[in-house]
Design goal:
Helix content: 25-40%
Number of strands: 9
CATH topology: Rossmann fold
Number of domains: 1
CATH class: Alpha Beta
Shape: globular
Radius of gyration: 19 Å
Low-confidence stretches: 1-22
Number of helices: 11
Length: 321
């Protein structure tokens, strides 16, 4: 196993060291402050930072339209995307970072939201906690589970819930599944199911109140998103993150029959919910981008692939605005 891990790490370093060509893109529009929202994960709550290498890689060095870069650090494990705490945190950050905010209306801003971060922003706008004018804010959506995530249900129903039949080898197998998922979400313990994960249960399985919160967030999201990137490969750019994402996806398929196209964490249909999946193209020049990358690649963490227009997430962002 150690040889395999070393081989994958070496190959990943080579495959992401260069992109499809050496060309770079400048900013075609107005430079504005950039606010980056992370998704689910064991992120210690704290002040915003100008870089966030462990989550976003070096995207701060590849953001030609950003006059500044601010990365939030929120506890998204113990707070759901619809919580008042995260709604307030989003509005406070956006109002502070944006240029020319007035009262509760966000000023000029480039908002880059990964995964659950999109639901947090959409929920805050839908609730009226703050507001924005589309001409002032460009919202870049990457990998958002806009109608939930079946893997959150699977974690709760299969991995965390235990009964008399879960002894012996079957119980040990569930423990292995739990460890794989914990690595994937960078959290020490995902059972019992924390509030952040529970908030991501699929829309079709939750209470009427929770489903209505999804619907409201989807409406706000569809109204304001400028560009979007969704992934369709659990393995992606072949990094160390490919191992837990690929394994978790394979287990989900083998034991639950889940075969939807996904990025290892979020189904393509959920990522494109309210955005019309048919409009997504496979070139990094497409503002709505169907990329052959995984969920962590979508956060620009691993740069670009060394071949293929569909494997260039960082270049997509560089050339987008």
């Amino acid at each position: 196993m150690s040889i395999l891990v070393l081989a994958i790490a070496a190959m990943a370093a080579f495959m992401t060291s260069s992109s499809i060509d050496d060309a770079t893109c400048g900013c075609k529009g107005e430079m504005r402050p950039c606010l980056f929202l992370h998704g689910l994960g064991d992120v210690a709550a704290g002040n915003r930072s100008s870089t966030f290498l462990s989550y976003w890689g070096d995207i701060h060095d590849h953001a030609p339209c950003c006059s500044s870069t601010d990365f939030v650090h929120w506890d998204t494990i113990n707070h759901g995307w619809h919580s008042q705490e995260l709604q307030a945190a989003f509005c406070d950050a956006a109002l502070h970072v944006s240029d020319g905010a007035v009262n509760r209306t966000i000023g000029k801003l480039i908002l880059v939201a990964h995964s659950m971060g999109n639901l947090i922003a959409a929920s805050a706008l839908a609730s009226g906690a703050c507001h924005l004018h589309p001409q002032d804010v460009s919202w870049v959506h990457v990998g958002g589970p806009m109608n939930g995530n079946w893997k959150a249900n699977y974690l709760h129903d299969f991995v965390c819930e235990r009964g008399p039949a879960d002894s012996g080898w079957w119980g040990h197998f569930k423990d292995v599944c739990k460890q794989i998922i914990q690595i994937a979400v960078n959290n020490d313990d995902v059972c019992p199911t924390p509030a952040g994960v529970a908030s991501l249960f699929h829309q079709s399985t939750v209470s009427a109140t929770h489903a209505a919160q999804y619907a409201a967030a989807q409406r706000a999201h569809a109204l304001h998103v400028t560009a979007a990137m969704c992934g369709v490969s659990p393995v992606g750019l072949l990094s160390m993150d490919s191992i837990p994402l690929g394994a978790a996806n394979a287990i989900h398929f083998l034991l639950d029959g889940h075969a939807a196209v996904n990025d290892g964490a979020v189904d393509f249909d959920s990522c494109t919910m309210s955005l019309d999946g048919a409009r997504f193209g496979t070139s990094f020049t497409d503002p709505f981008y169907k990329a052959s990358v995984n969920h962590f690649d979508l956060a620009f963490k691993h740069g670009d692939g060394w071949w293929g227009d569909a494997r260039q997430p960082r270049k997509w962002f560089q050339c987008l605005l």
